[in-house]
Amino acid sequence: MTTTTTFRLYLLFSFFVLFAQWSPVLSDLLISKLDRKVDLTSQVVRITATLKLENPGNDQISEVLLPFPDHQAKDLAFLVATTSEGKGKTKTSSSSLPIKVVNPEGLPPSLTWYSVTLPKELGKGQSLTLEVRAAFTHALRPFPEKITQADIQLLVFQESAYYLSPYAVNVQSLSVKLPEPKVESYTKLENTKFSGSEIKYGPYENLPPFSYSPIAVHFVSNKPFAVAQELVREIEISHWGNVQITEHYNLVNAGATSIGEFSRLEYQARPHLRGASSFRHLVAKLPPRAHSIYYRDEIGNISTSNIWGDSSKTLLEIEPRYPMFGGWRTSFTIGYGLPLKDYLFRAEGKRFLNISFGCPMDEVVIDNLVVKVILPEGSKDISVSVPFSVKESRETKFSHLDMIGRPVFALEKTNAVPEHNQYFQVYYRFSNLSLLREPMMLISGFFFLFVACIVYMHADLTISKSSPSYLAKLQWDEVQTALQQIQSIMNHCLGIHDKLEASLRDLSRTGDVQACKAARKSADNMLKELSKDLKPLLSFLQSSPLAASLYSKVEELVAKEKELQEKLIVKHTTVTDSYEKKSGGRDIENRIAPIQQKITALRQEVDDLLEIIDEI
């Protein structure tokens, strides 16, 4: 089946004729001339209808009804009506007129009705030019719905060549503006003309109420379909001079879903051919004095961003970590600060924040937009003024040094488009004394901390010196001191033993017996002095009840060290005597071998006992 045939079948099942026989007369209102312009150059479909209204009857007319089919009304994101006078450069428009949803009786149930209240009643023979602007999201359908990296993106737009109205229309025309002069197919009716990138239908004359003639345009569009499924904007006010904006995006390319393999090599070589329907960057238009700008995602900071600006704006160009093809998603956060004095004002005893509502990125559709205004702690009597309908709720946020929390005013809007990026106001009362709360808390905290330190340094927090636990602690400290001294004496003795061994090694190398005997004499004198120092310590441990379980180990240590001394002296005497008698080296080794074995074993035992005492 060819693409053209598939498309015709698609149209056959998509279109249906509404209101064929429905033509009740609501009033004498007549649309003498109607011009409609449909802009398809972006993913947001914008329709501008200029209606010249006339009242040929006798009754005064104060409102105009605007019907939309239900399938179209669910995609309606923005609707505004104004009156205009003059033409061209002299054309002037009034402020937007009140619009509300109504349910008129006796009219088709499959329509959603809006009522526009006129600035003044339209009398007999009077005329008025009404301009209605509407923006629709998700009104363009990719067809085919899935494409490869090399394919171009084709979209389908459905509308009626005749303006759907409960009023008769004398003359009307329709023009459809395309993003580029490439069309796969379009519905051809009487008086249809395709020129450049524009399709014109009409003029059509003397059409009765509820005239409807479905048309479809199947065209090429590689414009980015950036849709934020959710955008949470946090606007935090600090009366110390800053307004902090934080925006959390959950973004998807809602165009034709990309299928097949992705080749980055082909994309980088020919991005306009191998990825024409993708987008690689977005531009956020920030206020001119924005500062401390950052752009990051869940992984961390993203360096592929650029900032430039002038006195009227600051442009932030952000580039995701990968090109966004159809169906691909990404999440990121951007944040920046603004000077408080540019957005916070006073009026009638209140402060009010005046700041923009929507997304700073052009042509990004937002399925669900949540704007949270975080006011300083202590704010009260809060109210909000938004130029369109939103869902309101209140929360409380706790931050550093907060006691009762900061009031948060949350505004939620579905189907948000760039037209919603209008200024809104949040009014509240706030006492200047509340500014001193956090500094006073810090000062008080540091003051009490310093006072506590002074009290701690000067207070005697020790246990009573006459209590049994205190006395027991002192006795145990004395036992530990005695053990440390004994351990030091034992280590000193072992050091002297090592010197005796070194003197024997020097004797075997030099043969100087007298030097060896002098080393022996010096060692004997030092060991005697250490033995004297050891006796009072042993007596103290023997008499102390806390050292009863330890004394046996200490006593064993002293005995083993004494035995080690004796064996070393025997070894030393044997070697020196053998050298004086000029005995052979092998004979000397045979004589001291059993002694050396005993010395090695005793040294190991002494080291083990020292480790046990060291753990104690």
UniProtKB/TrEMBL annotation:
Membrane-spanning ranges: 440-459
Topology in membrane: Single-pass type I membrane protein
Location, primary (coarse class): endoplasmic reticulum
Pfam families documented for this protein: Ribophorin_I
Signal peptide annotation: 1-27
GO cellular component: oligosaccharyltransferase complex
InterPro entries, per the entry: Ribophorin_I
Molecular function per GO: transferase activity
Location within or outside the cell: Endoplasmic reticulum membrane
Keywords: Endoplasmic reticulum, Membrane, Signal, Transmembrane, Transmembrane helix
Any one GO BP annotation for this protein: protein N-linked glycosylation via asparagine
Metabolic or biological pathway, per its Swiss-Prot or TrEMBL entry: Protein modification; protein glycosylation
Family: Belongs to the OST1 family.
Task of the protein: Subunit of the oligosaccharyl transferase (OST) complex that catalyzes the initial transfer of a defined glycan (Glc(3)Man(9)GlcNAc(2) in eukaryotes) from the lipid carrier dolichol-pyrophosphate to an asparagine residue within an Asn-X-Ser/Thr consensus motif in nascent polypeptide chains, the first step in protein N-glycosylation. N-glycosylation occurs cotranslationally and the complex associates with the Sec61 complex at the channel-forming translocon complex that mediates protein translocation across the endoplasmic reticulum (ER). All subunits are required for a maximal enzyme activity.
Subunit structure and binding partners: Component of the oligosaccharyltransferase (OST) complex.
Protein's name according to its UniProt entry: Dolichyl-diphosphooligosaccharide--protein glycosyltransferase subunit 1
Organism: Nicotiana attenuata (Coyote tobacco)
